[in-house]
TrEMBL record:
Keywords tagged on the record: Cell membrane, Membrane, Transmembrane, Transmembrane helix
Organism: Virgisporangium ochraceum
Topology versus the membrane: Multi-pass membrane protein
Intracellular or extracellular location(s): Cell membrane
Protein name: MFS transporter
Higher taxonomy: Bacteria, Bacillati, Actinomycetota, Actinomycetes, Micromonosporales
PROSITE patterns from the UniProt entry: MFS
Domain called Major facilitator superfamily (MFS) profile: residue spans: 1-189
Entry GO terms, CC: plasma membrane
Gene3D superfamilies: MFS general substrate transporter like domains (1.20.1250.20)
Length: 404
């Protein structure tokens, strides 16, 4: 709550919430639209891949975030995102498949630019002792919107088609741009160095590789994404084979995961304030590892509890790694460091989804999930062993936890 008492952070937070309302409504719709246009589940699934592609190339966007005023990048990104949604109003047949994929890719690029800019602006707006609370507030609301937003968007699409859903998202981007335009923040100055393409684009990767705590956190985060990619494919086997439920029951588990993510967002600032960022990454990864193992138990209570723990285990490390980057990365490189981290996670997720789809077809999920759970446990232990690198001072830990 301390971060939300800062007027300019409240303004940034409000603009982000407005944009996320539209994003959450649109989340499932491109895939559903492609399924209706082509009749192919594979074509629908490719919308996720096109969304992920810009995330894999995120360092290029990070250069833009660091070279220009972050507020300007936010406003321009929201305006361009609104324009990019306009082609969806013309989609009416199978031949328009490329439009849906193009819009999905554009939304992926928008995600990278918006959250990379927000991460940098939060650093400039919020004192270091309140960064974890600010990131927790953003992530908690984001996950909360995901509980109902996608279902409402899908319902609106079913009743009225793609146009109204696209309009909601378009208006949310325009409203967010207006709110972001009102921000008054003294931003970290951009670098004055000469432009060298390779040096500029890889600067974020060098920050990650050259900062020991961040480098250690990457191992745990990548292990989470690898296990998560497997779970994306295995969850249907868990539901149909293990629980004897129809595939649509995956939606119920997704909602439970969302509830867990909200709880994780509420708990993250306390964990970080008491133990530090790397320890929080380790704690969250350990929870996710146990959840992955629990998913292999063919019983509804175990799978439901595991789904909730999955949300907790994903959210705490995400908030901890953003806070860690904000505290350790040089101000003029924070955009590139954030997007480079996103790229590492994005590549891990894309590769693991493909590998998971192949593995699940030949190996039982009851063997795969525990094996990958142990992998994540080892990564969690590796992060925890480095906890001393980011452990807060005793006085700060006590006051930070109390304020959180």
């Amino acid at each position: 709550m301390a971060a939300l008492r800062l007027p300019q952070f409240r303004l940034l937070f409000a603009g982000l919430v407005v944009s996320m309302v539209g994003d959450s409504a649109m989340m499932l719709v491109p895939a559903i639209l492609m399924r209706d246009l082509t009749g192919s589940a594979g074509a629908a699934g490719l919308t996720i891949m096109f969304f992920m592609l810009p995330i894999c190339a995120a360092p290029a966007f990070g250069w833009v975030i660091d070279r220009f005023r972050r507020r300007t990048v936010l406003v321009v990104t929201c305006l361009l995102s609104a324009v990019a949604l306009v082609p969806l109003f013309t989609v009416d047949g199978r031949g328009d498949w490329w439009t849906v994929y193009a819009v999905s890719a554009t939304m992926g690029a928008s995600y990278v630019c918006v959250f990379g800019s927000v991460t940098a602006l939060v650093r400039d707006l919020v004192p270091h002792e309140h960064l974890a609370g600010a990131n927790s507030a953003i992530q908690t609301v984001r996950q909360g919107l995901r509980l109902g937003g996608p279902l409402l968007g899908a319902a609106l699409y079913t009743v009225a088609g793609i146009g109204p859903v696209a309009l909601v998202n378009l208006v949310s981007f325009l409203a967010a741009a207006l709110v972001f335009r009102l921000l008054r923040v003294r931003e970290s100055p951009p670098p004055r160095s000469r432009f060298a393409l390779w040096t500029e684009v890889t600067a974020g990767m060098r920050v990650i590789a050259g900062t020991a705590p961040v480098r250690r956190s990457v191992v745990a985060i990548c292990a989470l994404f690898v296990a998560g990619g497997l779970t994306e494919s295995a969850i249907f086997a868990v539901v149909t084979e293990g629980l004897g439920r129809p595939p649509a029951f995956v939606g119920v588990l997704a909602t439970v995961t969302g509830v867990g993510a909200v709880l994780g967002g509420l708990a993250a600032s306390r964990v970080i304030a008491r133990y530090g960022e790397l320890a929080a990454v380790g704690v969250g990864a350990a929870v996710y590892a146990l959840a992955t193992i629990g998913m292999s138990v063919p019983a509804l209570p175990a799978v439901t509890a595991a789904a909730a723990a999955t949300g907790v285990g994903l959210t705490i490390p995400f908030i901890a790694r953003v806070t860690l980057l904000q505290k350790t990365a040089p101000a003029h490189l924070i955009g590139r460091a954030t997007t480079a981290y996103d790229a590492v996670g994005g590549v891990s997720q894309v590769v693991s989804i493909a590998a998971g789809a192949a593995l699940v077809s030949v190996v039982s999920y009851r063997l795969l999930l525990p094996a990958f759970g142990v992998l994540v446990l080892l990564a969690a232990a590796y992060a925890w062993r480095g906890a001393g690198m980011t452990r807060p001072a005793a006085g700060y830990a006590r006051t930070g936890a109390a304020r959180a």
